[in-house]
Predict the 3D structure of the following.
Amino acid sequence: MKRILLRFLCLALSHTSLMLASAQNADEFPTKEISLFKDGTALFFKQGYFPTNSTGQILLSSELFPQALEASGNKNNSTRYSKFPFMIGTMNWTAPGNTIKQIQRRTMPKLDSVLKPIETLTDLIKANKGKKAWVGLVENRAFEGRIFSSTEKEVFLYDGKNYFFAPIKEIRNFRFIDEPIQTQKAATYNSTDYETRSAKANEYNPWELQISLEKPNDNQLLEFRYMRSGIAWLPIYQIEFLPNKQIKLEFKAEVVNDLEAFSQAKLNLMVGVPSFAFSHGEDPLVSGQTLAEYIYRMGDKPSVADYENQFMRQRSSNIAMDQFLGIAPFSGEGQQNGDLFFYELKNVSLCSQCRGLFNLVSTQMDYEDLYSLKLAGNQEDTRRQQDKKDNTLQVWHAIKFYNTTDKPFTTGPAFFYKVENGSSIPQGQQLLEFTPKGVSTVVNITIAPEIQAESIDLEIARENTDKSGYDELVKVKGQIRVKNYKSIPVELSIERPIQGDPKSSVVPWKVIALGANLNSLNKNNLATWKLTLKPGEEKTIEYFYDFLAR
């Protein structure tokens, strides 16, 4: 009996030694670092130590890599790839202190009679149904008989007269009286049969990577970098209004992981916009694609619109151009690398299909209230100027503040609220646009209905300027009327794009020349006014401009 138990133990140890030769445990090759972009693209970085054989080769099992294929559920469906494929673009392997001569992907051949040791007591009992055995339980209870049946939790013995029930968890000693079966047949694989390997979602025909190095090493470090789509971070701002014209700003990162799990990894939350020319195709070395599938995928480039929304990409239209001059390099917990910024999170663990919310910045800063009115521009592509009145204008309440932190604010939704008498009162939610450190930004909060506005353009003269009679010079008087129904004074800024030649304004204005389109008769300009309105006060702005009409 001792020989039987010793043989079982030796087979198990022999199987363990084979596992070391061909790494198959994902824990041996953990994800150390992930650089996440807001558009759902990420760069994964794995590290692991592996022994080589005498010729400097390392075998990595397919079980080390996230699965890329999934069953389509339809034999005639040509879409074999999951929504988020394993690898996009190209991968990168390095072996610090050594040189990788070549990497080969080898599909494991069809094996019809592979036997592997039985490793658990439950499987051992199940495989030896009908065999005679002795079972010792807690409290000095024991049974002897033939194994009649078994489940994951219990075994039933029959001694010829009686049936005995024994919970698996209460078994303290177990020995066979008959010669036991100690191995079981492994699954068979066929590398050419797609229906077999796709019978279940994410099930592959096994394969392995053979990595050949310049020199053998008992403890070789391997590094693996690859791109994936399906994991992203989303910026979220929570802004609380405090007394004395201050706000409390909390900048958080929500990480959405629809891919593989990772543990104690460093996350780099990238701010810039990535440019990966081949991110729509998988690297065929580990994806298992045929050449035809690879070529098809590379020709099926997705549109940027598939991933883009307002805060997936940077926007900075609220920042004056002169504020960009002389900006110091970005520093702090976040880092700068070329044109890309990133925030760093350490020791993050997140399972597949999980989400996490992490705090990046929490600070207080001063702010000032602003009210803004943006008017539509005039049109030059009409033969006859129409007097145009717009009394449906909306005045927005906004705030202006400076980024006094040592990090830039990336584009993201900002939720504004105020706490009064223990209650959180929402004020609005709008988009906070990209703001470098030391630069001011203006964020709209909500429409201010207590400030009414209307605008009208009136044609006052027209004359021909072209002998053909096609071009005419139109002289226009514009009027803007605003009234403050609030009980407090407000500062109101007004913007109006003007195509043509701005002449004068009764209320002082500032006109910025924006240049002209090549196919346009007129130059583009932006006229701005700043007013202070007392409670109940009404003001009218009259201004004049000319433009060419055709």
Summary: The first strand starts at residue 22 and ends at 23. Residues 1-22, 68-85, 189-204, 300-338 have pLDDT under 50 and may be disordered. Residues 367-549 form one domain. Residues 2-21 form the longest helix (20 residues).
